[in-house]
Structure to design on (970 residues):
């Protein structure tokens, strides 16, 4: 279906009773989405303005204040309700999970479908693959993405290659591995990592990272229902802190599509996950202090990523800043830069900049210095403008 | 070779050092490549020229004769057992033997008197495997369940049929548990209850004969699927004779392994792995499973796929990576897979299938299907993390999974001595809280019985079972391996001559004159299968490779934009250099 409002790139698909009704739901005012910490900023909440096309499609009463873990919980609840084969498992998911993402689900769906596994990430990943290979929907949880590495053999050698190596006879598309990522203020080496770059280097899996509750619910439902195995990375800092009005209905956000959160003409600023909140602040600072108009984009799906969207934006602005918490060397920003410089070489007015974590393990007491914060990003935006002009 | 000393070993009731057996060319050529391995490891600095020469001479003597399967030599010799200390040198009584049985027994004894080289076969009480593990034999099928007393010392190996094709009577078992004597009488009581219904087919008659000859095994014979005709004719043998099909397919598999191994040596395929010596595990297990049981194998289980119905053409198509390969030419040879036959595609990493098997079984359980998942792996794989995780998950999550370990003595060059310190693999079962049994992997009837019982247990209790099938890898690890670099030809020959599963089944069939089975018949069957393999191979070689776009398909369900772009780039590049690609 063609998009009535070309500005809106993303397509929200609203499911009703699992029939093939599709409504193009254009996202409401960007301030809702890009300010996930809306709980302290009631002004942006009251400024909900739905574009006229959505008034008939989208009932204002059908949303609920949800934080990230509630939205994820809601998504999984819907998934288990509609798909009898869906099961959730991992360490400590039975009592609700260490981040409460699975709260109440065992009581609702039973011990057979929501259960603890022994403490073994390779076991969780392998079990998920086996379950999905027999036409089941397996939602496995890796308690922290820092601990996903034992599962790497299963993810890279099995999950990613399952369909390909069998000649499309077998597949494990029903696998979704969920895992919290990202800085949390006090996580140190092993509770703060963002391993999306390692995963992205694996053809055959999909890697998704939502920026907030509303995106998370839609992306998680898409991921669970995707016919490809998905690793769904959840910014743990947002579990409680990010609150939005999230539609209570079943809806999916398209995988492989980036979303332009804020249109601009001077600089394209690209990020993913919880880090977008930092980027929003940097972009606001640049607007406020220097009148720079930034186009802020959320990649959403790390791989396969939406090259067209980013390239189109960079052709417009001529400048790109990529920012992520993970260390800069071989971080996913490197892939973006390499591809965009090739696609948009003649459009570029300045070198593409990466504002990322340093090449060190994620430090505890130095976290504030390590993080590519709003000031570092603001400086990058400024220097991009200075270079170009 | 000193024959008088051998007869002294057999008569004396004490341990004596191992004596080498006369080497025959048959077994070595059967298991090892008939052409010198092309692949050479880096020269061993310490190996001097003389050793090299001797080794080369020995290898040269193992070149095949013109006939690929000179069985006549074997038939004239009695089976000699070599190293196991004979604790009980009693010859099993054949009280209810059929006339032909008695005659053959008499023949054997006559031969002994005539020819000092020959000796009667004595049913062993123990078997010595690689790594010098001497394991007592039990002829009682007992699945050690969680909470039961695990066997003290070494877990016994369950065997029904001895090397000469006769069934054990249990009198000379090296292992007898305390409660066994009691349960044995119970088994006898059960036999009278079975209402035997015999048809007219040769298989039914054989079963009837066996029940008469071995009443203590009557119960097992009634249940053993290898001795039951199938409901419908099998497509490849055009008969419903299960046992004959198992035998025929073992012959077929043997020939296929030999020919495809040679094909690699000739450069026609890039790689191959044989399973010589482990065929009884494949067909014993496969015949005990249902088609709805999903198989997750390692890479040395092609017999199971063959039993399910994978044709020679399909095997060779995969090895030649042609357009008919179900895997679309994407993986190395022997990485078979078939959705239709419920056999998941093989992957090279060891053990990854083990936790997957637990997950697959959980799904089967939740969907209410009357099916198990069956997972195969070698003993080397049991050292991996995935083995531990997989078994632990299956036990804690109550998954109906059969974990079948082919303990074949080697993980490439690593013998079991360097692989584990404990009593093999099955001894770990109580640690995981799961049932376990150790079985003689070269006895097709025992493997079948164990897998059947394990399957029934798994389904009834929604619980996993660990089966350790003891066997021996007669061939190299793969075509990239030269196993004589790390093990003696003597050792290979010992197992090939005495513990070969095909020989054992063949002895059994000959003993009962089953379908006129003799060496001639076997040779003819082998020749037929050889021609069939060669024919399939020729056809496979001529087929074209899969279309180029299969390089990019199936990475994801739908081709993503990035891959489409890369595909276009490749096509554009090839268009510029058409003759180079």
């Amino acid at each position: 279906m063609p998009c009535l409002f070309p500005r809106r790139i993303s397509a929200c698909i609203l499911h009703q009773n699992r029939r093939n009704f599709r409504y193009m739901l254009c996202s409401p005012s960007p301030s809702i989405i890009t300010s996930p910490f809306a709980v302290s900023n009631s002004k942006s909440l009251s400024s909900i303005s739905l574009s006229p096309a959505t008034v008939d499609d989208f009932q204002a009463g059908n949303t609920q204040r949800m934080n990230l873990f509630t939205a994820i919980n809601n998504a999984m609840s819907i998934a288990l309700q509609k798909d009898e084969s869906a099961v959730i498992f991992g360490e400590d998911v039975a009592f609700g999970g260490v981040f409460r993402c699975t709260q109440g689900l065992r009581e609702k769906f039973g011990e057979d479908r929501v259960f603890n596994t022994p403490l073994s990430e390779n076991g969780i990943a392998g079990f998920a693959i086996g379950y999905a290979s027999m036409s089941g929907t397996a939602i496995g949880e890796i308690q922290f993405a820092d601990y996903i590495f034992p599962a790497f053999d299963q993810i890279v050698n099995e999950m990613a290659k399952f369909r390909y190596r069998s000649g499309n006879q077998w597949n494990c598309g029903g696998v979704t591995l969920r895992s919290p990522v990202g800085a949390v203020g006090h996580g140190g080496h092993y509770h703060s990592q963002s391993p999306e770059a390692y995963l992205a280097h694996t053809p055959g899996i999909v890697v998704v990272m939502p920026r907030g509750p509303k995106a998370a619910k839609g992306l998680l439902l898409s991921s669970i229902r995707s016919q490809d195995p998905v690793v769904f990375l959840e910014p743990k800092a947002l579990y409680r802190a990010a609150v939005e009005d999230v539609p209570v209905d079943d809806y999916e956000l398209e995988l492989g599509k980036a979303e332009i959160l804020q249109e601009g003409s001077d600089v394209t600023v690209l990020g993913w996950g919880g880090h977008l909140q930092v980027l929003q602040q940097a972009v606001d600072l640049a607007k406020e202090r220097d009148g720079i108009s930034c186009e802020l984009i959320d990649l959403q799906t790390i791989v396969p990523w939406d090259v067209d969207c980013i390239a189109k934006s960079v052709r417009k602005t001529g400048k790109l800043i990529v920012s992520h918490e993970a260390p800069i060397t071989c971080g996913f920003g490197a892939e973006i830069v390499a591809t965009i410089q090739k696609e948009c070489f003649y459009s570029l007015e300045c070198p593409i900049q990466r504002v990322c974590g340093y090449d060190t393990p994620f430090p505890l007491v130095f976290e504030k210095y390590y993080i590519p914060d709003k000031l570092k990003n603001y400086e990058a935006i400024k220097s991009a403008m200075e270079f170009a002009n | 070779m000193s024959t008088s000393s051998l007869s002294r070993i057999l008569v004396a009731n004490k341990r004596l050092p191992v004596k080498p057996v006369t080497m025959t060319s048959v077994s070595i050529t059967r298991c090892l490549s008939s052409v010198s391995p092309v692949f050479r490891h880096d020269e061993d600095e310490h190996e001097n020229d003389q050793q090299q020469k001797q080794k080369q001479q020995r290898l040269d003597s193992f070149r095949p004769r013109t006939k690929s399967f000179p069985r006549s030599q074997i038939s004239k010799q009695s089976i000699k057992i070599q190293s196991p200390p004979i604790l009980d040198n009693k010859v099993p009584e054949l009280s209810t033997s059929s006339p032909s049985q008695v005659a053959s027994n008499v023949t054997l004894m006559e031969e002994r008197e005539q020819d000092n080289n020959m000796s009667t076969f004595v049913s062993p009480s123990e078997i010595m495997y690689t790594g010098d593990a001497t394991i007592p034999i039990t002829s009682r099928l007992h699945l050690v369940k969680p909470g039961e007393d695990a066997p003290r010392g070494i877990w016994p190996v369950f065997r029904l049929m001895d090397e000469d094709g006769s069934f054990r009577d249990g009198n000379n078992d090296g292992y007898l548990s305390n409660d066994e004597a009691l349960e044995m009488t119970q088994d006898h009581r059960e036999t009278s209850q079975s209402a035997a219904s015999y048809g007219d087919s040769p298989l039914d008659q054989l079963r009837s004969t066996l029940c008469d000859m071995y009443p203590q095994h009557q119960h097992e014979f009634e249940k053993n699927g290898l001795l039951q005709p199938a409901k419908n004719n099998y497509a490849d043998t055009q008969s419903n004779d299960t046992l004959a099909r198992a035998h025929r397919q073992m012959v077929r598999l043997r020939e296929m392994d030999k020919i495809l191994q040679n094909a690699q040596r000739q450069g026609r395929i890039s790689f191959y792995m044989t399973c010589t010596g482990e065929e009884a595990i494949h067909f014993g297990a496969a015949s005990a499973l249902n088609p709805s049981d999903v198989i997750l194998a390692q890479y040395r289980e092609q017999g199971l796929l063959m039993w399910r119905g994978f044709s020679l053409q399909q095997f060779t198509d995969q090895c030649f990576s042609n357009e008919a390969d179900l895997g679309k030419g994407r993986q190395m040879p022997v990485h078979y897979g078939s959705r239709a036959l419920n056999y998941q595609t093989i992957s090279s990493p060891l053990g990854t299938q083990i936790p997957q098997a637990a997950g697959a079984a959980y799904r089967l359980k939740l969907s209410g299907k009357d099916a198990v998942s069956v997972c195969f792996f070698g003993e080397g794989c049991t050292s991996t993390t995935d083995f531990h995780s997989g078994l632990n998950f299956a036990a804690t999550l109550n998954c109906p999974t059969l974990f079948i370990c082919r303990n074949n003595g080697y993980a490439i060059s690593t013998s079991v001595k360097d692989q584990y310190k404990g009593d093999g693999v099955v001894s770990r079962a109580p640690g995981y809280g799961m049932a376990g049994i150790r079985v003689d992997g070269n006895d097709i009837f025992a493997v079948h019985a164990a897998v059947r019982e394990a399957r029934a247990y798994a389904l009834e209790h929604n619980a996993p079972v660990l089966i350790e099938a003891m066997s021996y890898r007669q061939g190299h690890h793969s075509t990239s391996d030269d196993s004589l670099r790390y093990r003696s030809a003597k050792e290979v020959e010992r197992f090939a001559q005495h513990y070969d599963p095909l020989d054992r089944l063949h002895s059994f069939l000959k003993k009962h004159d089953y379908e006129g089975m003799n060496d001639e018949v076997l040779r003819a069957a082998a020749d037929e299968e050889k021609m069939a393999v060669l024919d399939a191979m020729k056809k496979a070689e001529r087929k074209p490779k899969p279309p180029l776009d299969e390089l990019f398909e199936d990475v994801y369900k739908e081709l993503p934009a990035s891959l489409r772009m890369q595909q276009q780039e490749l096509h554009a590049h090839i268009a510029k250099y058409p003759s180079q690609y």
Remarks:
- The longest strand of chain B covers residues 401-407.
- Chain B has three domains: 3-84+119-136, 139-168+225-541, 552-580.
- Residues 242-265 of chain B form the longest helix (24 residues).
